[in-house]
Write a structure and sequence with these properties.
Elements (H helix, E strand, L loop, with lengths): L1 H38 L13 E3 L4 E3 L6 H114 L4 H102 L7 H147 L1
Antiparallel strand pairs: 1-2
């Protein structure tokens, strides 16, 4: 592109110079004709001894009378050399402007490279921030898992504590039933045992109420645990979505950076080609204008230094781009591996938690089944207690009747003995009275 612009400018400059030379030649011929016409010799040959003089400061043509055709040739040669000199001056100006544009492009490229470095640093910071967020999410998930594990352990301990009195009560009730079966005849022991059985039944009702309260609290804890698990799943999903968003954003930014760097590389290739063409043009110009402008060597040196700087900057940019791409790829792979490991760990923990919840539900169902069995046994014990109470009252009634009959017999016996004693006392008293009367009459 720069080559085409440079060629077009050079062609336009050459056309403009040719038109100016033609205009000068035409004006010189008109002035010569006017001078000859003023002398009155219209058929005389022009004076060609002198040459056309070109003043660079005034930019006008000074005509000198010429008498021979050799003067015209010298004038044409001088005009051609003057045109070449002007075209070379224009080429040098164009070359200077092109070099200044290249320097400006280099400065712009350096500024863009600095901006891209700043954006890459921002991307590094964002990646570090996302990594820190992922680590914090993993720590929060680990804390939630520890809390869930502690809560499950507490629930297991509560279940064990709740089942322990039920087992002891069941064994105690079994012992009581066995003792009641073995010792039914002893009424005193039966009364004591029935009292103990009533106390145990009251304790059993209290234990049942306590077990029901523990079961309700366990259900509430399981509901809270399910809620926490749902929140944990939602947090994991949100973390996964945020990770995907950050990954997509980082990939988009990296793709934008790579596209920009590709554009820079294409621009640098174009600049390199333009600089090569400019170097060739400078070499050609230097070979053709060594006697005119000795500063071409300096321009060539500066152009070579500029080309070396551009090559060095391009190599540095390529190295930086490769390093940035490698580091971004490594960070992306590391982040993906960490998130995969975190997701796998969370899935395993959730599976273990679900298994524990299923085991807890099974144990709760077994506890409910055992409680229902204990309730049935308690109902049977109540029925047996009622039957025993009826039997005891019947035995007590029989015993009271037996005692009443014994007392009645003893009362009858005592009454008969009293009557006999009273009769005997009366008979003895009459005998003594008669004896006393007989003794008194005898005296």
């Amino acid at each position: 592109m720069a080559r085409n612009i440079f060629g077009q400018n050079r062609n336009r400059q050459a056309d403009r110079t040719a038109r100016e030379q033609e205009e000068r030649r035409r004006r010189a011929q008109e002035e010569q004709r006017a001078a000859l016409a003023a002398r009155g010799d219209g058929y005389a040959l022009p004076d060609l001894d002198d040459e056309l003089e070109y003043d660079e400061d005034e930019e006008e043509v000074v005509t000198v009378p010429a008498t021979i055709p050799q003067g015209y040739r010298q004038q044409d040669a001088y005009n051609r050399s003057d045109a070449q000199y002007q075209s070379l001056i224009a080429d040098l100006d164009e070359l200077r402007s092109t070099i200044s544009e290249l320097i400006e492009d280099r400065n712009t490229n350096q500024i863009l490279i600095k901006q891209q470095s700043a954006e890459i640093a921002v991307l590094h910071q964002m990646l570090e921030k996302s990594t820190n967020d992922a680590q914090q999410a993993a720590q929060a998930a680990a804390l939630n898992e520890n809390r869930t594990r502690q809560f499950v352990e507490e629930l297991e301990e509560r279940l064990d504590d709740a089942m322990r009195p039920v087992r002891s009560l069941q064994s105690h009730v079994t012992d009581l039933l066995e003792q009641n079966r073995r010792k039914v005849d002893d009424s005193t022991q039966n009364r004591e045992r029935f009292g103990e059985l009533g106390t145990n039944i009251e304790h059993l009702s209290a234990q049942t109420d306590r077990t029901s309260a523990i079961a309700h609290s366990l259900r509430d804890g399981l509901d809270a645990l399910r809620t926490e698990i749902d929140e944990l799943r939602r947090d994991v999903l949100r973390t996964d979505d945020a990770t995907k968003i950050v990954d997509q954003d980082s990939r988009r930014r990296v793709q934008g950076v790579s596209d920009t760097i590709d554009g820079f590389n294409a621009r640098l290739d174009e600049i390199r080609a333009d600089i090569a063409h400019v170097g060739e043009t400078v070499d050609d110009t230097r070979r053709s204008m060594v006697h005119i402008d000795p500063s071409l060597d300096e321009l060539r040196t500066s152009a070579q230094a500029l080309q070396q700087d551009i090559s060095r900057l391009q190599s540095i940019q390529d190295d930086r781009y490769d390093q940035v791409v490698d580091s971004i790829e490594e960070q992306r792979q590391e982040t993906d591996a960490r998130f995969d490991q975190l997701r796998h760990t969370l899935e395993e923990r959730i599976e273990r938690l679900n298994e524990r919840l299923e085991e807890s539900n099974d144990s709760i169902r077994e506890t409910g089944y055992k409680i229902s069995e204990i309730s049935g046994q308690i109902e049977e014990l109540r029925q047996q207690d009622a039957a025993l109470h009826r039997d005891i009252w019947y035995l007590h009634e029989q015993r009271v009747r037996v005692r009443l009959e014994q007392v009645q017999e003893e009362l009858d016996l005592a009454t008969a003995q009293r009557r006999d004693a009273e009769g005997e006392a009366r008979v003895g008293l009459g005998t003594r009275i008669r004896r006393r009367r007989g003794e008194s009459t005898t005296e």
